[in-house]
Amino acid sequence: MKSGSAATTDCRVADGYGEPQSIDGVVAFDEPVPPDEGVYVLCAATVDSTGAASTDSAGYAVMQIDNTAPTIDIELVVRSAVGEDAHVEPLFSPPELSSFDVKFGPRAQTDCSAPDGYFIFRRVPILIPAEQRPAVVCVIGEDEAGNRGRPHEFVVL
Length: 157
Description:
about 160 residues, Immunoglobulin-like, four-stranded antiparallel sheet, three-stranded antiparallel sheet, about 45% strand
């Protein structure tokens, strides 16, 4: 196996392949993925009778390392009429906004920067009864790599 930048690594080139190891009778490779952000290719090749990588039919997988929290603004959709309950939900925008943690409550008592009270948004609109408005809705976006962004605060009138 070998890994490297997707822009410069050719799985068909034998140079760079690591030596296989036997762990409890199973052939294994210990090839770390680079920790730096970027797009990488992970190459796998069979081993010929001399122990060299046979790359004629090498396989590969592409992996993206993402250590950066989402920076795009979250959009909140509010569906309501004057005097009626509000249905609110954040808009997904994969891969940057693939999951959300939310909390909501009375305007004077809800602090979006406080970590307590958040729960996973399960794609079911949040119901805010008319008599509980104005209310604050706090939303934290998470990307597909699990990086959490900053809390966003919305006032629902």
